[in-house]
Amino acid sequence: MAELLRLYSYWRSSAAYRVRIGLNLKGLRYELIPMHLVRDGGQQHQPEYARLNPQRMVPTLMHGGRVMRQSLSILEYLDESWPERPLLPATARDRARVRALSQLVAADIHPLDNLRVRRYFEEEWGVPPVERDAWMRHWIAEGFQALETLLADDLATGTYCHGEAPGMADCCLVPQVYSARRFGLDMAAWPTITRIEQACMALPAFGQASPEQQPDAPQAQAASA
Fold this sequence. Notes:
The chain has 10 helices and 4 strands, in the order βαβαββαααααααα. The protein has helices at residues 14-26, 47-52, 71-81, 92-109, 115-124, 129-152, 168-182, 191-201, 204-207, 218-224, and strands at 5-9, 31-34, 60-63, 66-69. α7 crosses α8. The model has no long low-confidence stretch (mean pLDDT 95).
């Protein structure tokens, strides 16, 4: 497993943010390859990258010559390849719970507020930004209401989404909270989600993965100029 890990990422991509957290929680070194999703019409559409990932999305993880796509699949690959510091719990029942929490975010909330949806609203339908952002807030709030209930009403919830160690569900939750705040959503309605997010952000693995800490973030580029 000494082959180099390369992660194609965009600083503000929620899906890439999940994988950066997972890599950090595992203590794995990797090379980050920025893919700007907006500049030049979107670097993800360049033929070389499109051959690597036909969906033309990030993240893509390369482990030597192997190519992994889709953030949850990548996180599970990391867990199976490096079982230390597990992202999924030991029992089938608990793994099912963590996967369900993760998919609630990654499969139900995030697809409705990602960059492709926002750009389609703007470029194809001419939806004004104020209406577009209201759409985003509505669907994030719908998902967070369900997620809050599932977390608050289950004894398996601990300091983190599941127990006392951060895992795959936390890798999904934190980027979605970041996105919610970006679109002006008041997090006061979901105290359990907020508490867990704050506990996660106290850990270096989460802080170092945050968008503003990435080399392709505008703040980082301005500082190095």
